[in-house]
Amino acid sequence: SQTIHQWxxxxxxxxxxxxxxxxxxxxxxxxxxYWYRQAAGRGLQLLFYSVGxxxxxxxxxxxxxxxxxxxxxxxxxxKKLLLSDSGFYLCAWSRDSLREQFFGPGTRLTVL
Amino acid sequence: AQSVxxxxxxITVSEGASLxxxxxxxxxxxxxxxxxxxxxxxGLQLLLxxxxxxxxxxxxxxxxxxxxxxxxxxxxxxxSVHWSDAAEYFCAVGAxxxxxxxxFYFGSGTKLNVKx
Lengths: 112, 116
What we know:
The complex is a heterodimer. Chain A is an all-beta fold. Chain A has strands spanning about 5, 10-15, 20-25, 30-40, 45-50, 55-60, 65-70, 75-80, 85-95, 100-105, 105-110. Chain A starts with a strand and ends with a strand. In chain B, strands 2, 5, 6, 10, 11 and 12 form a 6-stranded mixed β-sheet that branches. The interface of A and B includes residues 106 and 108 of A.
């Protein structure tokens, strides 16, 4: 069966510090991968998606970037965090873009 | 542009009562439709999905949803709510982009409270 992991589960970072959130998927190959941000009281905002190694599509201009160094690894990064980067970050995978997405447990990021 | 509307931000029902959560979407073609549930501080779990065929779909935990094309709706129902159903529910639509890639558009969610 497939599983998706995210770490860390929670993170508190000062403004201006760098960020690296990691997501890995087990039990499948060549998945589509997604990063979402969920702000309090709002739905999910798609940040990035990837259909293969090194292929990243960005949905909104922002302070964040994403990379996919391996088939089942997806990393969300920032060089300098802003207060507005606080939120709940969810990674998801799907077998192809037509199918349901499966979500990881999420990372709660607080920028102080 | 594609969009998903969940008009109810909060809903409170008594345990054992029936439940209906509303979802309306805007999309020109036949969409792929999903309902997810999220417990506090957790990721999203898929409840059910609609791709084609029978417009009444059954999901996990006793949930069902009905696709009504004429109303652009995909409402979630459960005949008898349990206290463990208290969570936030998200409707999503998968829509093809100009690059033939299916992106998900999520509603803003409905928080369900269950009274004992």
